[in-house]
Amino acid sequence: MNRNPGGAVPFMKMHGLGNDFVVIDLRAGGQPPADNIIARIADRNRGVGFDQLAAILPDDQADLRLDFWNADGSRSGTCGNATRCVARFVMDETGKNHLTLRTGDRILIAEDAGNGLTRVNMGQPVLDWRAIPLAYQVDIDHLPIEGDPVATGMGNPHLTFFVDDAAAVDLDRFGAEMEHHPLYPERTNVEVVHVLSPDEILLRIWERGTGPTLASGSCSCAAAVASARRGLTGRRVKVNVPGGVLHIDWREDGVWMEAPTAHVFSGVLTSEWLAG
User: I need a labelling partner for 69 at 20 to 30 A (CA). Which of 57, 143, 154, 156 fits?
Assistant: First the structure.
């Protein structure tokens, strides 16, 4: 970890539509926290609290690299809203309006979209069952699971259900159960979608390793892609999540996501707390 004298660790608290993050900047050196420390930081009563933790690191081929962890300390392949938050921070810091960011095995493009909005190309969706990954070969557009859901990879595995009333779903029970479905060997994010029109959906989210969240970039992208694949919407949709609105545009060069970000505060994890 990048520590101040005395062992303290500076961090930033950010959010995208209420999907909140602790961000640790390691571009000047240091190592990310251990998994058990990450889970302690995630505790909203005894730590800071977050949906995901992001570490900013240097990269040889991109402007920076981002590594992500869920609230339980497990690794996450990507986090679209955290990527937008960090991109906005670095663009403001450097004066650039265009960045490249490595997340996992992808190099993503971020842009200043104007009016305080930040846009990120999350890359093309993964539509091969092995790479999502799933446990065995199935029709990913009609999974053999009650509810006829869709499987998509967006840097993380996703499971998307279409329902008539998203608010009626007991997400705490349903999401927890579906996250651990045996078809998904690495667990999965779960999306419950109500299609409002050919260009608008309503989305509730359960993130693996975290639980229900107010927003999620990769989940919004996966839900939009699944809706388009089912023929329920076009490839450009307004996604309503509990925390606000994202705009998703599935183009030839990837799935673009646009929404506001917020840098809430900067703080320091004390050496005493880290040692505890």
Answer: 143
